[in-house]
Write a structure and sequence with these properties.
Number of domains: 2
Structural class: alpha+beta
Number of strands: 14
Order of helices and strands: EEEEHEEEHHHEHHEEHEHEHEEH
CATH superfamily of the largest domain: Gcn5-related N-acetyltransferase (GNAT)
Number of helices: 10
Radius of gyration: 21 Å
Distance between the termini: 26 Å
């Protein structure tokens, strides 16, 4: 029996939006398919291609980017990985060279977002690719270990209007934060806490842990081998701009995966009503699964129901 040429499991293909800085803002790379006319559906596209059987999704995106443009040193970041077509983006220097390695494309152009969107048809494809990426600002993201001096700011983040509903019902105070998070910061319990920074400014928190190190959570999820994390974008000015998806995706690759190289899955379990958080995880390739009912344990922890969202590490990253 002949082996299938392409993967049959989602996402079966990836598109990589390539942008570079220009005097007028951003320019986007569009490629013309050699077998198409000058106009019409799919005549002009961003670098796009199908995944090979068993090929990790990120590896497939990198391969297609190199095969279609010659760019082999960029680091694609997730834009929206839900569904059959995973959308990534990569920012390159203004003097990057483009090499149409294969014969699928016969020419390319660098265009501002609106003009690139006019070339890409159908318009729904332009909306999913160039226009969506153009709305996401270019930022520098990094993470530093949290200290006890960060706890007042962390409490303020939890009490912010967009977050208080999801963090201890907005009843956290500094004394409770010291009791709850101090041992984690000090390394007395196996949970690491980080301050997320955007362009050098503290904007949120991420924490990570091995599920098996927390007996109750391991029993509820049935997945002690997984690595889990929680996150909070504390700065309200950054909410709803696509930065959270990029921040969490970078954390998974830079911090979580190196710390837990044998973890077959990553887990996060937001409240079932937290649509923004669930959508963020969806865009990173997580799949919703088990629902967990958490009983009230104190005035800071009312009853809640969480959805366990799981990412298959090998499928996405290899």
């Amino acid at each position: 029996m002949t082996e299938p040429e392409f993967a049959s499991d989602d996402p079966t293909a990836s598109g990589v939006v390539v942008r570079r800085p220009a005097d007028s803002g951003w320019e986007y790379l569009v490629l013309h398919r050699a077998h198409e006319g000058p106009d019409g559906d799919w005549a002009w596209t961003v670098p796009t291609g199908r995944r090979r059987p068993t090929e990790p999704v990120l590896a497939g995106a990198r391969r297609e980017l190199a095969e279609e443009t010659g760019i082999d040193d960029g680091e694609p970041w997730a834009v929206d990985l839900a569904g059959w077509w995973a959308i990534w983006a990569v920012t390159v220097p203004p003097d990057v060279g483009i090499d149409l390695v294969d014969a699928e494309h016969d020419r390319f152009e660098w265009l501002p977002a609106e003009r690139a969107a006019e070339r890409i048809k159908p318009c729904s494809v332009a909306e999913q690719t160039v226009l969506k990426v153009d709305a996401i600002p270019e930022v520098d993201i990094d993470f530093r270990r949290m200290t006890r001096d960060d706890l007042p700011t962390y409490v303020d983040w939890q009490l912010a209007p967009h977050a208080r509903r999801w963090f201890h019902a907005g009843r956290m105070d500094l004394a409770e934060a010291e009791r709850r998070y101090g041992p984690r910061i000090d390394g007395d319990v196996p949970t690491r806490m980080w301050v997320a920074r955007v362009d050098g400014r503290d904007v949120g928190m991420v924490q990570d842990y091995r599920v098996g190190d927390h007996d109750e959570y391991a029993a509820k999820t049935g997945d002690p081998e997984a690595a889990a994390f929680d996150y909070l974008i504390g700065d309200p000015d950054l909410v709803g701009r696509g930065i959270g998806t990029r921040l969490v995706g970078q954390f998974l690759r830079e911090r979580l995966r190196p710390a837990y190289p044998d973890a077959p899955r990553f887990l996060a379990s937001p409240d079932y009503r937290n649509r923004a958080s669930l959508r963020l995880l969806d865009k990173l390739g997580f799949r919703q699964g088990l629902w967990i009912d958490e009983p009230a344990t104190s005035e800071y922890d009312p009853p809640e129901t969480e959805i366990v969202c799981t990412l298959d590490v090998a499928h996405w990253y290899g």
